[in-house]
Design goal:
Helix content: 10-25%
Keywords: Coiled coil, Hydrolase, Protease, Thiol protease, Ubl conjugation pathway
Strand content: 15-25%
Radius of gyration: 45 Å
Distance between the termini: 110 Å
GO molecular function, one term: cysteine-type deubiquitinase activity
InterPro entries: Papain-like_cys_pep_sf, Peptidase_C19, Peptidase_C19_UCH, Ubiquitin-like_domsf, USP, USP47_C, USP_CS
GO cellular component, one term: nucleus
Shape: flat
GO biological process, one term: protein deubiquitination
Length: 1319
Amino acid sequence: MVPGEENQLVPKEDVFWRCRQNIFDEMKKKFSQIENAAEEPRVLCIIQDTTNSKTVNERITLNLPASTPVRKLFEDVANKVGYINGTFDLVWGNGINTADMASLDHTSDKSLLDANFEPGKKNFLHLTDKDGEQPQILLEDSNAVDDSVHDRFIGPLPREGSVGSTSDYVSQSYSYSSILNKSETGYVGLVNQAMTCYLNSLLQTLFMTPEFRNALYKWEFEESEEDPVTSIPYQLQRLFVLLQTSKKRAIETTDVTRSFGWDSSEAWQQHDVQELCRVMFDALEQKWKQTEQADLINELYQGKLKDYVRCLECGYEGWRIDTYLDIPLVIRPYGSSQAFASVEEALHAFIQPEILDGPNQYFCERCKKKCDARKGLRFLHFPYLLTLQLKRFDFDYTTMHRIKLNDRMTFPEELDMSTFIDVEDENSLIYELFSVMVHSGSAAGGHYYACIKSFSDEQWYSFNDQHVSRITQEDIKKTHGGSSGSRGYYSSAFASSTNAYMLIYRLKDPARNAKFLEVDEYPEHIRNLVQRERELEEQEKRQREIERNTCKIKLFCLHPVKQVMMENKLEVHKDKTLKEAVEMAYKMMDLEEVIPLDCCRLVKYDEFHDYLERSYEGEEDTPMGLLLGGVKSTYMFDLLLETRKPDQVFQSYKPGEVMVKVHVVDLKAESVAVPITVRAYLNQTVTEFKQLISKAIHLPAETMRIVLERCYNDLRLLSVPSKTLKAEGFFRSNKVFVESSETLDYQMAFTDSHLWKLLDRHANTIRLFVLLPEQSPGSYSKRTAYQKAGGDSGNVDDDCERLKGPVGSLKSVEAILEESTEKLKSLSLQQQQDGDNGDSSKSTETSDFENIESPLNERDSSASVDNRELEQHIQTSDPENFQSEERSDSDVNNDRSTSSVDSDILSSSHSSDTLCNAENTQIPLANGLDSHSITSSRRTKANEGKKETWDTAEEDSGTDSEYDESGKSRGEMQYMYFKAEPYAADEGSGEGHKWLMVHVDKRITLAAFKQHLEPFVGVLSSHFKVFRVYASNQEFESVRLNETLSSFSDDNKITIRLGRALKKGEYRVKVYQLLVNEQEPCKFLLDAVFAKGMTVRQSKEELVPQLREQCGLELSIDRFRLRKKTWKNPGTVFLDYHIYEEDINISSNWEVFLEVLDGVEKMKSMSQLAVLSRRWRPSEMKLDPFQEVVLESSSVDELREKLSEISGIPLEDIEFAKGRGTFPCDISVLDIHQDLDWNPKVSTLNVWPLYICDDGAVIFYRDKTEEVMELTDEQRNELMKKESSRLQKTGHRVTYSPRKEKALKIYLDGAPNKDLTQD
């Protein structure tokens, strides 16, 4: 057949090429679509959820095409965060005030481009509440299999937020409503108070037991007979009603535990659930006496068994009947490495009898002799509710610690107990499992939860504190314990720690198996209780709704009288108006008796920047919810209750303004005034800003200088008139200093000007309170008498004297300066200076806080161009005011003994600004500079010729030296400001105490600070110490003299104590006595000072008198040694010829042992080795005292010889071991014989495993032929107690120290202090 033209066959090659072409066309089409999409601009949206404090830091990022409708944006955001679309708003967040912006329309079809979104840039949006209501959570349909993945879990709960998380943003704990909503299972959880999981597990099991719950409901509480708070059955009733009817996810158990008589500390105590079960049942039986429920516990849980002993010779059987509430089943038999495989196997072992033979024979009453016997248990009656306790907690006698056995033990869902009973019973004994209480963790602690089967729907549920979820039979099998595979003896160590601990079975008996009471079957009193609980829950719900609609915001108010900033929390409903909120804040701040209500208003405030953001004029009737931007858990701003005087008018604060605190500076008075507040705009120029300030403070703008303090020590002069405030660095809240005077200081460079120096000092000056010693050295009576004689004298002759001796003498100059320093505090002169000296007058009316003394102003009219020092260039300004007077050296000494503190008290006015020199010439002081600052700096110059000078010694890193290199030149040191004046401290500081209030530049070094304090303490700075007082009155000595006071802050307290401070190369050393055979081998003796270059013998010579005076130790220099101390370990013995810093490294706060010798010092060379030996006597179970052994080398043979020599043990029988741990290496006598590494196979001591390379090692030794004493169990227990007590006292490891647990008690009267016997 010839095929037609239309049906012609196509060659295979053509088919291939056509297919290929089609594929290329499709790909081209898709690439074209992609290119078109790529060409379209995209919009990056960054959304911040501000509706919840937990999500305020979360960011959602969406990258959408510019043509995307706005409604699609809302849909994407809703899906991303898990909110219902339409229940939230989106507003712009690009630095725009969201309160003034309209929200985007969630139904708009406008594209993002048309809605003013900017492509290629970050578009910030805020997700906010809609109409003051929080967004609604999107609840997923989670009624599928196993109650959703979110709720299904077995075992301890993970950390919050890690369970049920569908994304990084949405988690199960995200919504407040999700915590309140009831579980999808219909069951209610219990809140874990802290460690009450064991209680929750038992309570849920009892609640899910129909017979127990129904019986509890039938019991009626009589309020007239008992307090409901302490009634355990009534509180259980309430709890069960809430578990059955509440709409919450979980309820509290605090009312139940309060009825137990527990306080909050009990919530932090972990207990055993089986122990709780017994104690609670006992308490219920006591409470239910003489009621229908009196025998309820016995009827449900009590069984009977026979404990018997049968003689194997005559067949006589002795027995007694016992009752039980639970059956304890052993997991692993004692001494066995194999656990029982199942509950049935453990039950058989429980009733398996044992043979009493040998020393354990039984005395038969019939045979009248000891006979072999069979002892065992027989079950006579099983309870309706069978409780099996799996004894997973055991005691390991090897480690002497409690352990948990995690071995696998299976248990059936149905258990036939007929094979375990001793009597015939026609009734069926088939039990069904309905509760498994699971423990997860170790013997030291863990977590309980319960797996319970509901008799209503035969479904298993996991009750894990507040979480309830459905589980399967497979999940129950996971609680059998054990692990996959076999690990032999160590199988328990590698097994899962989550396993069943208590099992509860119910007898399958249709006649007795009860169902839960229905609501219509409730007794009348339970119906009333249900109604009351529902009303309380509804009331609580309404209260939560009020809380949900209540704005809670920080409230501040500057008290108009006390001028103290007060802080509180304003809680106002979102529908309350601003006017009502002002009235609430007015009453909250207790201003009713202080200021009228109409003189108060609320303004928006930023506490961090101390910035008033805006005021609310004309919005008195606006709801607070709208003013504050909705109800939020946290706000990004605060409120300030602003007050005014009746004759004042409130200033209007507009958004966009900046607040400026203006301090007016007076260069003549050298004062900085308290600030006044002005508001400006960032776009104002400096010129406009000057005009604004000029109107506020009434100073001329033409000569005005404005200095901006942007941050600490960052002063910026606003010198460009056309610059805007924004360009100058102004922000929300600013601080400026303003000066307007026609002085030459205006023409100087800013950093060289008087204004800069004054402001620099103002920024760095701190106020300290210094407590002086109770009694300074010298004759206090003489000083007082002298002060009374001359303190009120107005004659200059009595105040400035000339010392005998040459003027150029360094000693004379120092004496003059010292004397002048002491005398100036008692002077009452007004300085008179020439006009060329500059204006040195000082206002005494300005407060101490605002008026700060200036540094040295060295523009003396007589000074030369090279600014020579005052000591080298002394000029007479007004010689007529001074007269020469000669005095004796004794008079001078009396003057010098006068403390400047006393002078201050006696003086009737401020100290004079003059200083006297050797020729009675007046030395003009700098404008306002305190005389003691000058004197101290002069003393530095006066002492230049001496060997020891202040702040000039070479730096000695790591040494607490009085002489250090501060790194400051003397020109710089002149500007380190210091001013001190007497201060009346609070009562209770004690008689004789004197306080100084010191204003000081915190850049000053501690060494210079001490120099300034010398006149007030009365001794040189090398003879007193400075202690900084911290919180709780803790004192720590400040010793680093080259460090500044920058770590101090305003109002810090300092205590001065007399005592020699350290010099260069000196170290403070703590000396401890080493008592090797005492219970506490380390005893503190005293603090001493050792110096670099000093020999050990020299330090011992200095210690001898100190030991005699301070410690009562009368020692000769050759009868004690010094040795290294490392914590409590004695180390290297220091030989007398050793030199500190050369042979012995020494450091700050060094510690050293002092050891009293029994005889002549045996250590003569560094090649010797001193070890401490102690003999162990196993036959007596005791240790001998320590004995020192001095070796000439590190040879083991020599050690053996020495030990044999002191002990009398034959050399070949000596065995030794190195002690472990810190000195004295204590170890229990029960462990020493086998725990130490005896007789190491080494020839020298300095190798492994001994590593004895230094003095002080502890060596135990014994006679290897000596047998260990055999102990009875009673002796061993007694010895264990003694050893535990001994080792605990010495602070060393105890062989067995069980975890101390608080006994579990339930107090029937709710008061633990009234009944301590109820257990």
